[in-house]
Design brief:
Length: 457
C-alpha cells in the first residue's frame, strides 16, 4: 500500500533568472552609462580655450538650462513615484483594517486530501472526518469546528452557480450567478459571519425531505427585494436540478479578493453533499492570539488518527488568507522602494546642481561676502534656484499622480489617488530631503574665505 507523505506547502521557487534577461540588463546599464558619460565629454571637447577663459572669468556657464531642466524632470518623476508609494502604503494600511465579513484572527485551518491515499473510499472518508471532529473537540482551547469546500480569501477560488426561481427568468444569461460553497453546521458561527435572517444548518437538515440552502443578503435582495427570503424556493444549475428551500440569510463578506464588489453567494449542507477534499476551520477559545497555540495540538490529533494523511496549508487562519494581502503588500513595498530610490536620485541631482553653482560662482560669492553679504543671503543665492526648480517639478509630479488615472484606482483599496494625507506626506518628505541636499551643498559657499577667493581669481 502506497504511503503518501504530508504536504505542508507547495513550493513555487524557481532556480535562476534567464541568462538572456541578465545579459540584456547588463547591456542596458552599460549603454545608459556610455550615453550619459559621452554627452558631457563631447560637449566639453568642443569648447575653445578662449571660451573656457571667459567662463572662468564669470561668464554664464554653458548648459545651465539643460541641467536645470533635467533636475526638474528628475524631481517630477521622483515625486510621482513617491506619491504612488505613499498611496500604496495607505492602501495596505486600510486593507489590514477593513472588515472582510468574517473573523480572521483566533482560528486554525488545514486541508486534508484523503483521495490521494488508496486507503480511503467514500465511506472511510466520512468516518475519517467524524473521528477527526470528535478528536479535535477534545483538544484544550477549541471552541467550535466546521468544514467547508473552500475558505474565503485563501487563494483557492470556489465555484459559481446560476440561480433560478420559480417565477423568475429561465434564460441563463438573465439570472444571477452566485458564489457556491458546501459547509457543515456551525460553519458561520465558526468563521464569524452572522446570520441576519433565518438559521444556520443543523445536523437534522441532512435527512429532511427538501434540501435547505443558505444565501447571502446580496442574493436575497436581488431575488426577493420586497419581502423575506426565508421559506422561498430556488434552483441552481446542477445534475439533479432539485428545488431548494432558503433556510437562512448570511451577511455578505469578501470571497475571492479584497477589492471585489459585494456579490451573491449561497451554501449547501456538506453532510448532504459530501466531499473528500475539504478544509477544516477550528475557532480557538480565548484571546485573539490564542490560535497559534492550537497549531501543534491539532497536528498531533491528525497524526494520532492517521500519520500518512496528506495535509495542506496547516496553520492559523490569518496565515491562510495572507495570500489575499500579498499583492497589495508587494505593491506597497515595491512602489515605496522605487519612490525612495527616485528620491535619492533627485537629492543627488539637487546636491550636484547646487555644488556646481557654488563652483561656478565662487568669484561672485567672494565679492558679495567681502561687501558684507550675510550667510542666509548667500544660502538663498546659491540654493534658491535649485530648490525652486525641484519643488516646482515635485508639485507637477504630485498633480500628475492625483489628476491622471494611470491605472492606480484599480490597485488601491479604500484610498483614492488624490488622498490628501498621502499627497501631503510625499511632498513633505520630498521637500525635506531636497532642502537638506541643497543646504548641504550650499554650506560650502558660506565657508569660503572671500580674500582667498579674490586672490585666486
Amino acid at each position: 500500500q502506497a504511503m503518501v507523505p504530508p504536504l505542508d506547502y507547495v513550493s513555487t521557487w524557481r532556480p535562476a533568472a534567464d541568462a538572456r534577461v541578465v545579459a540584456f540588463s547588463i547591456l542596458l546599464v552599460v549603454g545608459v552609462a556610455l550615453v550619459c558619460g559621452l554627452g558631457p565629454a563631447i560637449q566639453a571637447s568642443g569648447h575653445s580655450f578662449i571660451a573656457g577663459l571667459k567662463d572662468l572669468g564669470g561668464g554664464a556657464p554653458r548648459g545651465r538650462r539643460l541641467r536645470e531642466l533635467l533636475v526638474g524632470a528628475q524631481a517630477l518623476v521622483s515625486a510621482l513615484l513617491l506619491v504612488a508609494g505613499s498611496l500604496f502604503v495607505r492602501s495596505f494600511q486600510h486593507a489590514r483594517r477593513m472588515d472582510p465579513g468574517f473573523a480572521i484572527d483566533g482560528a486554525v485551518a488545514f486541508t486534508l486530501h484523503p483521495e490521494l491515499s488508496p486507503a480511503y473510499d467514500a465511506a472511510r472518508t466520512r468516518g475519517l472526518y467524524a473521528r477527526l471532529e470528535e478528536s479535535l473537540s477534545g483538544v484544550p482551547g477549541v471552541q467550535s469546528i466546521a468544514r467547508a469546500a473552500w475558505l474565503p480569501l485563501d487563494g483557492n477560488a470556489g465555484n459559481v452557480r446560476r440561480v433560478f426561481t420559480p417565477n423568475g427568468p429561465t434564460d441563463p444569461t438573465q439570472v444571477p450567478v452566485a458564489e457556491f460553497n458546501v459547509v457543515t453546521p456551525r460553519y458561520f458561527a465558526t468563521i464569524g459571519t452572522p446570520i441576519v435572517e433565518g438559521r444556520e444548518f443543523v445536523r437534522a437538515d441532512s435527512s429532511t425531505a427538501m434540501e435547505g440552502v443558505i444565501i447571502n443578503d446580496v442574493l436575497a435582495r436581488r431575488l426577493w427585494p420586497a419581502g423575506s427570503a426565508v421559506g422561498q424556493r430556488l434552483r441552481i444549475e446542477s445534475p439533479s436540478n432539485a428545488e431548494l428551500e432558503v433556510i437562512g440569510v448570511a451577511r455578505a463578506s469578501l470571497y475571492r479578493t479584497l477589492g471585489e464588489r459585494p456579490r451573491p453567494a449561497l451554501w449547501l449542507n456538506l453532510d448532504r453533499n459530501p466531499r473528500s477534499r475539504v478544509t477544516t476551520l477550528i475557532r480557538a477559545r480565548g484571546p485573539r492570539d490564542s490560535d497559534a497555540a492550537l497549531v501543534a495540538p491539532v497536528r498531533g490529533a491528525i497524526a494520532a488518527i492517521d500519520p500518512t494523511l496528506p495535509i495542506v496549508g496547516h496553520g492559523t487562519f490569518r496565515q491562510r488568507v495572507s495570500v489575499a494581502y500579498a499583492s497589495i503588500e508587494t505593491g506597497a513595498v515595491g512602489a515605496l522602494g522605487f519612490g525612495l530610490l527616485a528620491l535619492l536620485l533627485a537629492a543627488s541631482g539637487v546636491y550636484g546642481l547646487t555644488a556646481y553653482a557654488v563652483a561656478q560662482r565662487r568669484r561672485e560669492i567672494g565679492i558679495r561676502m567681502a561687501l558684507g553679504a550675510t550667510r542666509s543671503a548667500i544660502l538663498r543665492l546659491v540654493a534658491g534656484r535649485a530648490l525652486t526648480l525641484t519643488l516646482v517639478g515635485a508639485g507637477a509630479g504630485a498633480l500628475l499622480a492625483a489628476l491622471v488615472p494611470m491605472g492606480l484606482d484599480s490597485l488601491l483599496f479604500g484610498v483614492s489617488r488624490y488622498d490628501p494625507r498621502a499627497l501631503a506626506v510625499a511632498i513633505a518628505v520630498f521637500g525635506a530631503v531636497a532642502l537638506a541636499a541643497a543646504l548641504s551643498a550650499a554650506m560650502r559657499a558660506v565657508g569660503l574665505d572671500p580674500m582667498r577667493v579674490l586672490r585666486l581669481e
